Amino acid sequence: MSKAAEEFDVVVVGSGGAGMVAALAAAHHGLSAIVLEKAESYGGSTARSGGGLWLPGNEVLTKAGVTGDAHAYLAHVAGPDATPARQNAFLSAAPEMLAFVRAHTPLDFAWVPGYPDYYPEAPGGLASGRSIEPRPLDARLIGPDLATLAAPYRAAPGSIAVTQVDYRWLSLGVRHPRSILTAARLVARGLSRKRKLTMGQALAAGLRAGLRRAGVPVLLGTPMTDLVVEDGRVTGVRTTGVISARRGVLLASGGFEQNETMRQKYQGMGTEWTVGAKGNTGDGIEAGERLGAALDLMDEAWWGPSIPVGREPYFCLAERNQPGCLMVDATGRRFVNEAAPYVDAVHAMLAAPQPAWLIADQTYRNRYLFAGRGPRTPLPRRWFDDGMAHRAGTLAELAARIDAEALVATVGRFNGFAAGGRDDDFHRGDSAYDRYYGDPRQRPNPCLGPVGKPPFYAFRMVPGDLGTKGGLRTDERARVLRPDGTVIPGLYAAGNVSAAVMGRSYAGAGATLGPALTFGYLAAKDMA
User: Fold this and answer.
1) What's 52's domain CATH number?
2) Cβ(97)–Cβ(521) below 8 Å
3) Domains held by the chain: number
4) What are the per-10-residue average pLDDT scores of the chain (528 residues)?
5) Which pTM was predicted?
6) Shortest CA distance to 274 belongs to which of 463, 464, 513, 497?
7) Is 75 in the same domain as 206?
8) Contact of 220 with 231, CB cutoff 8 Å
């Protein structure tokens, strides 16, 4: 970079969705912008994600006829942990942000039909759902930037491009005609010479294409070492040199899920169970804190029960909802509705005796996809050798690490509920959300099936996460605040570097990315 190019109107730290939308919006408001990314690839956790966006009232939902009182619903979900001003700012700007992205990138989006809000029975909640996802994106549109796109969390076999809608049906194995049709369609897509990007890969790549068109530089391998402050105002970023910002600096550098010290300090656990991007080590949070910024929700994360497989855990979505399984704690007793939203499931795990176990039978293994393994597919020997999976001919034999008598009694009671189709203890299957990943052919409750056919399995479950959700306190314009509520001039934050507008909960699929992109957009508008 030349000396003349070391000053911009807007400097963005982080190349995830929040940062790229902010830089793109700044450019289209006539401001010069630059994106700094410490990794050698762009996209961060956005590229690793499912790519879903929870954005009530947007034009894609309106066209699909999806309406509802999103203000009442978000107030119920976020509670007192996010100010009404921030909630309203998000809901007001979300449709405008999505229209902007559609107009200035090659991205288009589709409603994920029937994927419910996570609390569809709450005031304003929708069983039909408000989540949208990127349509498959032609990889040729990305040009040279395809080579530096961050890898997905877990690539589909053969690099087949899978959408969120596809995953729902694939999880059912061969139990439903749509499962078979979906698998056949994906195989055909994989045979095509035209490579398609889906989910978070499509979102990150499409935003990067928009930045290239707008002439916004993205510097990879350029970590921020600190913020520059002059006369009480943030005026730039230190890297190997100084990059000045005339209008402001946006921190979009992700959470602190990969920072062992911060996780131990705020959450009492390490980094081994997160699937967040490796570069998310809390740099932006620490930089803001050094300037006196307030922090919120540092004990929270975008939690999800996970199986500790290999080098990183497997984040379970459908596995807990399908019939023929249940979760127990270290005493052999159920402690949660297994099909509950994943953040709630982990809150219950953290309050229960650990470790937790997912108990299943052979019928379950014969029918459904499990941790990426097809029905009837033999499970890796290392799973059993590592102690994360156990198999036995009887429940009593299975319970080597828990109370065998309690486990047998728990499964017996559960099987009684399965026969009647109603879970009197934890109400599994009562919510439309529970049933989304259930088995439509399981009657009368798509989430409840008996655990009775040997051999039986126990899979260790850990409190994994998609990333942390606590960080810098911000206002409705994404400005970073001090504990007394005053603004740190020139400093903005969006995404997981900031405390989530969802508070301690989770409105629906895409409730991480939807607000992140929206507050990035609002930050750019404020700087303009």
Assistant:
1) 3.50.50.60
2) yes
3) 2
4) 70 98 98 98 96 98 97 98 98 98 98 97 98 97 97 68 83 83 78 85 98 98 98 97 98 98 98 96 98 98 94 90 97 97 98 96 96 92 93 91 91 98 98 97 96 97 97 98 98 98 98 98 98
5) 0.96
6) 464
7) yes
8) no
